[in-house]
Amino acid sequence: MTTSSMDRTLILLRHANAESGAADHDRDLTSDGWKDARAAGAWLHAHDLGADEVLCSTAERTRQTTQALWEGGCCETDVRYEDRIYNAHPEALLEVVRDSDEDASVVMVVGHAPGIPAFTSLLADGEGSPQAHELLAQGFPTTSMAILTFAGHWRDLAFGAARLDRFHIARA
């Protein structure tokens, strides 16, 4: 993807399906979760959507989702594990993204519901692809990705300042 220094892409990804039973922070992906996350990586690769920076929750299921993305073909990059993403509300997620590397044109956040879905809705506020918004309105299941665009510096990102260009639910 070719972008100018002010054109940004934000990929918001809800982790893949996780097992139940363990402490929430320590839950592993299910076998289907691993497959779906690899399918997400293949989709990102097919759409030339590699990230310059990945911001990932510290939960085990988000770490494993990120690993499976690489296994699926998404370009590997440095991952910054952020406690602030785990069970974060939209305002906290906004602060995490504002702290992104200013040289990064594409930033990916791997997190959780309900924070990631609410953050997506607040950032785009109805702007962008009608089809993507329709899919988003139907829910944000595990291994869903919202692809948003934003013109400006990450530190200036605000609710209502982005466009929702694509919404994809990865399934193996």
Automatic annotation (TrEMBL):
Entries under Pfam families matching the protein: His_Phos_1 (PF00300)
**Which keywords, in A-to-Z order, does the entry hold?**
Hydrolase
Q: Does the keyword Endoplasmic reticulum apply?
A: no
Any one GO molecular-function label of the UniProt entry: hydrolase activity
Q: Which organism is it from?
A: Nostocoides jenkinsii Ben 74
UniProt superkingdom = Bacteria
Q: Which InterPro entries match?
A: His_Pase_superF_clade-1, His_PPase_superfam, Mito_Ser/Thr_phosphatase
Recorded protein name is Putative Phosphohistidine phosphatase SixA
Q: Which residues form a coiled coil?
A: none
